[in-house]
């Protein structure tokens, strides 16, 4: 697969399949993650399912458009530069097939059993697996060829955020119980009975907050995946940001400033590649590099600068200089057109419309020993929306599923109703096995395909 020519029929067919896979993955992401946003309003009969899903989809779209792309490329940068943009300019077909095939398969497997699994974990596990598979493929040392600093940064956010969701929702529910005297907030919903207007308005508001924050964070993840695919499909058009044309005079100045930083530290195995890319970019105007090759060279330099920025041996001034140079280089290769953002939101919204029921039932009836009450749903969603939105604007990918489900569990503990250990065990097992399974499968797939 690595020998596919960029314009060959097999390359176009494979990349077309990858584009379909990324859309289907986001469709399946809607089953899992976006369903958490509409669970409370549907379960309490505050909104009819179709209305709730359409409204949630609109808020997802708004969140995607209002958010940045920091989360999108925080995930993309988990990949080694030679996998992200092969040096010969060929499409990264093995990476795309391994990524989408692994993440989609695990997502569908857990959805089928109604387990609120994290799509973020699926994607991150697959990305880490590809990086490890690439190390084996080129007989590289895992300690240097995989960007563990970036991986631990992402995994820390994924591990801590559910704990914050649990504690935060528990405390907020106790505060609501202490200060709000409204019996309807603490009663389980009756079938086909709409709650009073105040409760209904509260739950619609919290649903809106979670949907917006989900689009702001999870929508960015799909943006990064879609961009990987369309760059492979049409490198001449999308390899470089058309809205920020590359100025070669500025590019040469930036890579020349990067050279002494990259050359000083040998903590990682891509140092020689980064220095070769700097040599190439210093004469880029004369060599007329193809867009895909230019993109690959810039990512090699970015990889070197990230290594300097995270190297404890570098001085504070060098850390700042490396980060500043990387910030100048990124806009040429890290961007997202409006239509990609809209496509991301549409895939999420349509997936929610088709497959929300299993997850809604699990959240409403499966996590606690009693059914979810409006106060519990509102507390978990307010805390969840705050955490997800904060992570979205700071460039950290978090799991909507794990934050919301842990928040619901926190309110169940606070109310004294207890937790359904059977459901909790299923969610816990999915949480424990997702990363090992997706890492192993993606690593094996990438190794054999490449």
TrEMBL record:
Ligase keyword on record: no
GO biological process: phosphate ion transmembrane transport
Subcellular compartments: Cell membrane; Membrane
Catalytic activities: phosphate(in) + H(+)(in) = phosphate(out) + H(+)(out)
Main location: membrane
Family listed: Belongs to the inorganic phosphate transporter (PiT) (TC 2.A.20) family. Pit subfamily.
Name of the featured protein: Phosphate transporter
Organism expressing this protein natively: Gluconobacter wancherniae NBRC 103581
């Amino acid at each position: 697969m690595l020998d596919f020519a960029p314009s060959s029929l097999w390359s176009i067919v494979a990349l077309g399949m990858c584009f379909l896979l990324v859309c289907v993955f986001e469709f399946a992401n809607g089953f899992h993650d976006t369903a958490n946003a509409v669970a409370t309003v549907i379960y309490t009969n505050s909104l009819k399912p179709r209305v709730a899903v359409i409204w949630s989809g609109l808020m997802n779209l708004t969140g995607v458009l209002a958010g940045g792309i920091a989360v999108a490329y925080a995930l993309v940068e988990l990949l080694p530069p030679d996998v992200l943009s092969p040096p010969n300019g060929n499409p990264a077909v093995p990476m795309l097939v391994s990524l989408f095939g692994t993440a989609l398969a695990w997502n569908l497997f857990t959805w089928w059993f109604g387990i609120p699994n994290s799509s973020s974990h699926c994607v991150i596990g697959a990305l880490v697996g590809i990086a490890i598979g690439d190390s084996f493929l080129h007989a590289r040392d895992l300690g240097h060829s995989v960007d563990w600093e970036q991986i631990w940064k992402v995994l820390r956010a994924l591990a801590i955020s559910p704990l914050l969701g649990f504690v935060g929702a528990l405390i907020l529910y106790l505060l609501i119980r202490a200060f709000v005297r409204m019996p309807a907030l603490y009663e389980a919903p009756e079938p086909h009975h709409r709650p009073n207007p105040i409760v209904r308005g509260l739950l619609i508001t919290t649903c809106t907050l979670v949907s917006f924050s989900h689009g702001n964070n999870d929508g960015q993840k799909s943006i990064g995946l879609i961009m990987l695919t369309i760059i492979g499909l049409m490198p001449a058009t999308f390899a470089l940001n058309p809205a920020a044309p590359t100025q070669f005079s500025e590019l040469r100045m930036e890579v020349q400033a990067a050279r002494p930083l990259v050359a000083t530290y040998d903590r990682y195995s891509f140092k020689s590649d980064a220095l070769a890319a700097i040599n190439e970019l210093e004469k880029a105007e004369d060599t007329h590099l193809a867009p895909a090759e230019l993109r690959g060279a810039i990512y090699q330099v970015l990889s070197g600068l990230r290594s300097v920025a995270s190297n404890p041996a570098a001085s504070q001034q060098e850390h700042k200089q490396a980060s500043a140079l990387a910030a100048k280089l990124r806009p040429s290769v890290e961007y997202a057109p409006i239509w990609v953002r809209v496509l991301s939101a549409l895939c999420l919204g349509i997936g929610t419309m088709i497959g929300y029921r299993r997850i809604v039932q699990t959240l409403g009836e499966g996590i606690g020993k009693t059914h979810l009450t409006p106060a519990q749903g509102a507390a978990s969603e307010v805390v969840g929306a705050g955490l997800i939105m904060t992570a979205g604007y700071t460039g950290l990918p978090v799991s909507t599923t794990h934050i919301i489900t842990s928040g619901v569990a926190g309110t169940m503990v606070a109310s004294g109703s207890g937790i359904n250990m059977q459901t909790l065990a299923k969610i816990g097992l999915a949480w424990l096995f997702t990363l090992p399974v997706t890492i192993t499968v993606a690593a094996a797939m990438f190794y054999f395909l490449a």
